[in-house]
């Protein structure tokens, strides 16, 4: 079992959460998706899977839902 955490931009509501969750759950090996919504900010998405996920596939699934993985410039400064 592997757990990966991603930051996603553009999500604002429960519908956004549902769309991202649905697309990520369609990936092979995904067993659970949890979203910590930060409306209008950078949300945290945790994905549990049977095997490590290909980040390109994750990015494409999030894009298909209408959102984007956060790039380094979208992350808060430490």
Question: What can you tell me about this protein's structure?
Answer:
GO terms for molecular function: metal ion binding. This is Copper chaperone. Keywords: Metal-binding. InterPro entries: Heavy-metal-associated_CS (IPR017969), HMA_dom (IPR006121), HMA_dom_sf (IPR036163). It holds the Pfam family HMA. This protein has 78 residues and is an alpha+beta fold. The protein has a single domain (2-69), classed as 2-Layer Sandwich (Alpha-Beta Plaits), CATH 3.30.70. It has helices at residues 14-25, 55-64, and strands at residues 2-9, 30-36, 42-49, 68-69. A 4-stranded antiparallel β-sheet has the order 2-3-1-4. A hairpin with a 5-residue loop joins strand 2 (30-36) and strand 3. The radius of gyration is 12 Å and the shape is globular. The protein starts with a strand and ends in a 9-residue tail after the last strand. The mean pLDDT is 90.
Number of strands: 4
State the helical fraction: 25-40%
Strand proportion: 25-35%
CATH class designation: Alpha Beta
What radius of gyration results from the CA coordinates? 12 Å
How far apart are the first and last residues' alpha carbons, in Å?
30 Å
Structural class: alpha+beta
Q: Sum up the overall morphology in one term.
A: globular
Strand order of the largest sheet: 2-3-1-4
CATH topology grouping:
Alpha-Beta Plaits
Arithmetic mean pLDDT: 90
Low-confidence stretches: none
Give the CATH architecture: 2-Layer Sandwich
Pfam family, one: HMA
Protein name: Copper chaperone
Keywords: Metal-binding
Organism: Aeromicrobium phragmitis
């Amino acid at each position: 079992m592997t757990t990966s955490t991603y930051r996603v931009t553009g999500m604002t509501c429960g519908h956004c959460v549902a769309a991202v969750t649905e697309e990520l759950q369609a990936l092979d090996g995904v067993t659970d998706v949890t979203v910590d919504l930060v409306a209008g900010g950078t949300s945290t998405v945790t994905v549990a899977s049977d095997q490590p996920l290909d980040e390109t596939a994750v990015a494409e699934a999030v894009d298909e839902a209408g959102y984007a993985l956060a790039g380094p410039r979208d992350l808060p400064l430490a």
